[in-house]
Amino acid sequence: MKIKFALILALLSVVSFTVCGKPKPEPKVPVGEKEIGPAPEGMVLIPAGFFTMGSDSSDERPKHKVWVDTFYLDNHEVTNREFMIFAKETSHPKPPFWRDSILGLPDHPVVGVSYDDAVAYAHWAGKRLPTEAEWEYAARGGLAGKEFPWGNDAPKGKCNFAWRADKDADGYAETSPVGRFAANGYGLYDMAGNVWEWCNDFYDSLYYRNSPERNPAGPDSGYTRVIRGGSWLSINPTKFLRCSSRMELKPFIRDRYYGFRCAKSP
């Protein structure tokens, strides 16, 4: 009798659940690290979100709200060691400073690379160059409204930006090994100083006036490309090392101040 009664109650509960209401669906996993998966080796997962891009200065106007989708970014600039592996495997020309006693050191950022050199490396590595919006969003490291990747403190001791007037102010006369200074809130190194970094965008001083809110990728055409981050030879560190600072560069230029890091879409 007890067994029959238990079976009846179980049947009634099933009928009640299916007739009186639909089963509650499983909650969707929010977009994030668990759904996308861990970042590839040497890269950091940058979570999607809004941020305020630009500043009230010159071609950084106006400040505007931008949404960036989740992406991965190299945790440091591409090094000479990494670029030389690519050059050997693909017969790509070696950068002009690869024999330099400082600029050519294996753990220093590769310099003397053009935009096309950077794109070729990124393609070989299964990556791409970051957009200008992705770069600035990542450089801010989750800090809202701050001047630099670490906050509003002066750059001294925070990154490599020695200038001719005081080359050894930070201990390095030229480039420094990647990752020598503290990382920002996302775990990214050298987002200010060391070398300017190529972005994928064409440069337009007026682009911010009409850029889309979601994942802006720069103008459709242009003559120069955007570079970001300042270098070890920043004439005005408080200007060029800011997260919002942007410059243009002809894509064929190869000089000792310019390098890059790669991005990757999940």
Care to describe what's here?
The protein has six helices and nine strands. The N terminus is likely disordered. The protein has one domain: Alpha-Beta Complex (paralog of FGE (formylglycine-generating enzyme)). 21% of the residues lie in helices and 14% in strands. Strands 7-6-5-8 form a four-stranded mixed β-sheet. Strands 1-4-9 form a three-stranded antiparallel β-sheet, with no helix packed on it. The protein is α+β, with helices and mostly antiparallel strands. The termini are far apart.
Question: Can you tag this structure with a few keywords?
Answer:
266 residues, alpha+beta, paralog of FGE (formylglycine-generating enzyme), 4-stranded mixed beta sheet, 6 helices, disordered N terminus
Query: What's the CATH architecture?
Result: Alpha-Beta Complex
Overall radius of gyration? 24 Å
Provide the domain count. 1
User: SS-based structural class?
Assistant: alpha+beta
Number of E strands: 9
Strand count, sense and barrel status of the largest sheet are: 4 strands, mixed
Unreliable spans are 1-33
Q: What is the multimeric organization of the chains shown?
A: single chain
- Total count of helical runs of at least 4 residues: 6
| Beta-strand proportion | 5-15%
Can you give the helix content as a percent range?
Answer: 10-25%
Question: What sequence of helices (H) and strands (E) makes up the elements?
Answer: HHEEEEHHHEEHEEE
Overall, the morphology is globular
Largest sheet, order of strands side by side?
A: 7-6-5-8
Give the averaged pLDDT, no decimals.
88
CATH top level assignment: Alpha Beta
From the N-terminal CA to the C-terminal CA, the straight-line distance is 59 Å
CATH superfamily: paralog of FGE (formylglycine-generating enzyme)
CATH topology: paralog of FGE (formylglycine-generating enzyme)
